[in-house]
Amino acid sequence: MLPTCRASFLVTIIVWALGSTTGWSQSSNSSPYSIFGLGDLESSGFAQHHGRGNARLALSDPFSINLANPATHSSLGRAWRGGNRKDSIGYPILQLGIGANLLRLENNDATQDNSDFFLRNISVGLPLKKNKWGLAFGLVPFTLVGYEINTSEELTDGGNVSYIYEGTGGINRAYVGTGYRLISKKNQTLDAGINGSYLFGTVEETRRTLLSGGFNTRVTEKTTVSDINFDLGLNYRIKLWQDSADYRRQIWFSVAATYTNGADLNATNNLVALNYTGNAQNEIPRDTAIDRDLKGDVTLPPTFGFGIAAHLFNQWTISADFTNQDWSQYRAFGIDPGLGNRTQYAVGIQYVNNPFSIRFVEQLHFRAGFRYADSRLIINDQQLTEYGISFGLGIPISRNLPMSYLNLSTELGQRGDSNPGLIREQFARINFGLSLSPIGLDGWFQRRKIQ
Questions:
Q1: How far is CA 426 from CA 4, 104, 112, 412, 413, in A?
Q2: What pLDDT does residue 451 have?
Q3: Residue 215: what pLDDT?
Q4: Over the range 211-232, which residues count as b (16 or more CB within 10 Å of their CB) and which as e?
Q5: Cα–Cα distance, 67 to 196 (Å, whole number)
Q6: Predicted pLDDT at 182
Q7: Residue 442: phi, psi to the nearest 5?
Q8: 232, 290, 285, 228: which is closest to 260 by C-alpha?
Q9: Contact 135/178 with Cβ under 8 angstroms?
Q10: Distance between CA 43 and CA 386 in Å, rounded?
Q11: Residue-range domain boundaries for the chain
């Protein structure tokens, strides 16, 4: 990621660490693979999306924020299916997400289990014009870095040298987006939208060389990013069928396209290299070899996405996505770390027995999905793959809040394999989401009239 971390250097670290007979360890934040680029990419989806394989580009729901396609913001908070207030433009939505990752890391010589628990996202959706225009804003993680790799070797003179590689931090994404309905007809709609995002954060990486005689070196690099980029989206929906006896039994089909611009993000890099005695907790500096600050750019590649969805009888929703991001275009201060083209395919399904019912069981949302990706990571001329199968459940909170849900999801999957020089990551990603809308609380968000 940084100027001194060229692709060959990074590959050498991974291969050497994983092939070492002394083993390795990882911090709880992420994975040893987060040493590449700005770290592991984090999904912007909420628990209700993760439960269906994250296939969400063409999904438009008035009570669920969909950050992946800003065109869907136009539907936020539109009049409730059972509501009858004529003086309301709609209802706001608050969404919170918490994540837990359980990792099992394996190579030829070692197996290790790790876990972490963190706040995944917080977002707010607001209707600006009923069934026409919506706004969303919030904060989500963009990347996470968290690794610790330890290796050692015997020197020819009988001494011992140890190497420790550590990384922490990540990049955050604060966003605001809006979606507008360009076409609004009885049997079809066309929405367009835009998200503006402010990317900010710091990644810190440390490399230590520890000699048995106590003469050690430490190199610390901090890369700070602070800049903006944009997402564009379109979503077209058409009604294919409606039951003449029951207007609620309908079939809708949706198609969506998204684009995230490539961006040259403003960045700074601070590098300090020093020699010291003692240990990591009690360094006694001897001299500083390098202390420099560098300003430049971190180049992110553009992203293209295409999605379809079918909405059947107000019970079934089936969705499928394709996304592509060519990370071979990624540069950090002009350095190419040797990443590859990332493509992902995802499919998902959701079932609810009767969304209009007041019975608890009939309002439960059952979800499942699958995704497969050729990741951006290329190690030993091998592009790593990743796949996961997911399950989810949407649970209504109470009768007084009929469109507020507790959403749960679990994804089980794998990245990489245990061939020489690689790690196989087997993961369970658990997400807890809370989606709140004040429908049913009669005193909220009504226009006051002077008598």
A1: 30, 5, 11, 8, 6
A2: 47
A3: 81
A4: eeeeebebbebbbbbebebebb
A5: 11
A6: 97
A7: -65, -20
A8: 232
A9: yes
A10: 14
A11: 7-266+298-436
Distance CA 208, CA 167 (A): 12
Q: How far apart are CA 195 and CA 187, in angstroms?
A: 27
What is the CATH class of 7-266+298-436? mainly beta
Q: How far apart are CA 75 and CA 136, in angstroms?
A: 11
CA distances 37 to 3, 65, 171, 289, Å, are 11, 28, 11, 25
Distance CA 191, CA 133 (A): 9
Check residue 87 and give its pLDDT. 43
Q: What integer pLDDT is reported at residue 440 of this predicted model?
A: 55
* Strand blocks (E) in 130-159: 133-154
Cα–Cα distance, 303 to 231 (Å, whole number): 9
Is residue 275 within 8 A of residue 342, CB to CB? The reply is: no
- Show the tokens assigned to 314: 């107000």
At position 422, the amino acid (one-letter code) is L
Non-local CB neighbours of 448 within 8 Å, separated by 6+ positions: none
* CA–CA separation, 197 and 140 (whole Å): 10
49, 71, 272 from 232: Cα distances, Å? 19, 8, 40
pLDDT of residue 399: 74
The pLDDT, as a whole number, for residue 110 is 76
Rounded Cα–Cα distance for residues 353 and 204 (Å): 49
Q: What is the pLDDT of residue 291?
A: 86
pLDDT of the residue at 439: 67
Q: How many other β-carbons are positioned within 10 Å of the β-carbon of residue 240?
A: 12
Distances (CA, A) of 410 to 263, 281, 393, 429: 32, 38, 9, 6
Which helix or strand (DSSP H or E) is residue 259 part of? strand 250-260
Q: What are the tokens at 448?
A: 């006051």
Contact 25, 149 (CB under 8 A): yes
47, containing H or E segment:
helix 47-50
Residue numbers in the chain where pLDDT is lower than 50: 1-29, 79-87, 442-451
- Dist. CA 429–CA 115, nearest whole Å: 10
As a whole number of angstroms, the distance between CA 3 and CA 336 comes to: 9
